[in-house]
Design brief:
Elements lengths: L11 H10 L8 H23 L5 H8 L2 H33 L3 H16 L2 H9 L7 E5 L5 E6 H4 L2 H26 L3 H9 L4 H31 L11 H12 L2 H30 L11 H15 L10
Antiparallel strand pairs: 1-2
Helix pairs in contact: 3-12, 4-5, 4-8, 4-11, 5-8, 6-8, 8-10, 9-10, 10-12, 11-12
Length: about 325
């Protein structure tokens, strides 16, 4: 008879106990904490200066922050931004299509427009349109090189606001055209060839295949352009248009309180830029649905999830117990 075989059994519970006794030492990063402490000290000093330095004159800031004249000028700034964005990107789409078309005439015209309007400073364009009546006192609508149907006075149609919108929109169109073109050509051409092989109509290809993927590249740059346009509306103050920065200049020119009035404009610019950034985040999140299996949580969803974790951690625990 053979000798009995020594069979050794392993206790899973014992293995788990041994594993639980293992302690992984965390890596110590002393310079990281030193740097963080130094940054926090600088931030605390800055906040302390904002709160205690009388030069900021926060009572004057509070008095004018929601003043009727300031809110009216803020609405003017928003209108200039909306009109400039809408018309600029609408014309930018046409210019981008012209650049990508097989028609050499459209390609040359689109390229020349983009080259010219990106070369000329925005303030020069605004002042040109503001003084367009010096070049053309009247304009007519009719057959090219033929009779006109009716005429109108340029000074009566193109006001300061209209000139500002035209200048901002034409300037924005040159930059938005390149952003849109770059987004379209970033889409893999193989997908378009596959769609052609499947017989999908060209219009459906653009809206179902090309545009959703192009928007992922277009949106970040387009949002930057909108924010730049929003802040760039302050340039129209040279045309005596009562937008936010111009109105602030008028007020501190009368009161002499320069710093608090500049802070009024600064805070409003920060607030509206933050709103635009939030809108950008959710639009980008919408178009990112096809690029990932599961989208990351939004900041609000992270807060709700963390709250539920904290709430559920305490459920069922005896009073006075800690986990």
């Amino acid at each position: 008879m053979s000798a009995p075989t020594d069979i050794r059994t392993t206790d899973p519970a014992a293995e788990r106990t041994d594993d639980a006794d293992l302690v992984v030492a965390r890596t110590w990063h002393p310079w990281r904490w030193v740097t963080s402490a130094a940054v926090l000290i600088v931030v605390a000093q800055f906040i302390h200066g904002l709160a205690t330095n009388p030069g900021w004159d926060w009572p004057t800031f509070a008095r004018y922050f929601t003043a009727e004249s300031v809110l009216s000028a803020l609405w003017m700034t928003i209108k200039l931004t909306l009109w400039g964005t809408f018309l600029g990107f609408a014309l930018g789409v046409l210019l981008a299509v012209g650049r990508l078309s097989n028609n050499p005439v459209l390609q040359v015209i689109s390229w020349t427009y983009i080259w010219a309007f990106r070369s000329i400073p925005l303030i020069v364009q605004l002042l040109f349109w503001f003084n367009i009546a010096y070049l053309y006192q009247t304009m007519s609508v009719g057959i090219p090189f033929g009779p006109g149907f009716f005429e109108f006075e340029v000074s009566g149609v193109i006001s300061g606001f209209t000139a500002a919108v035209i200048g901002l929109a034409l300037h924005q169109a040159a930059y938005s055209a390149e952003i849109i073109r770059a987004g379209i050509i970033s889409v893999d051409h193989g997908q378009i060839e596959a769609a052609n092989a499947l017989g999908i109509p060209r219009l459906r290809q653009f809206f179902r295949i090309v545009l959703p993927q192009a928007m992922r590249s277009i949106l970040p740059n387009a949002a930057n352009e909108v924010i730049s346009l929003f802040k760039g509306t302050s340039i129209v103050s040279t045309m005596a248009i009562a937008e936010l920065f111009y109105q602030v200049q008028v007020i501190f020119g009368r009161s002499g309180r320069v710093v608090p009035l500049l802070m009024v404009a600064t805070v409003w610019y920060i607030i509206l830029t933050t709103v635009l950034s939030i809108v950008q985040y959710y639009i980008e999140r919408h178009y990112a649905r096809g690029s990932a299996r599961e989208l990351p949580l939004t900041p609000w969803q992270k807060v709700v999830t963390k709250y539920r974790e904290i709430r559920d951690t305490g459920v069922g625990a005896p009073r006075g117990a800690t986990r």
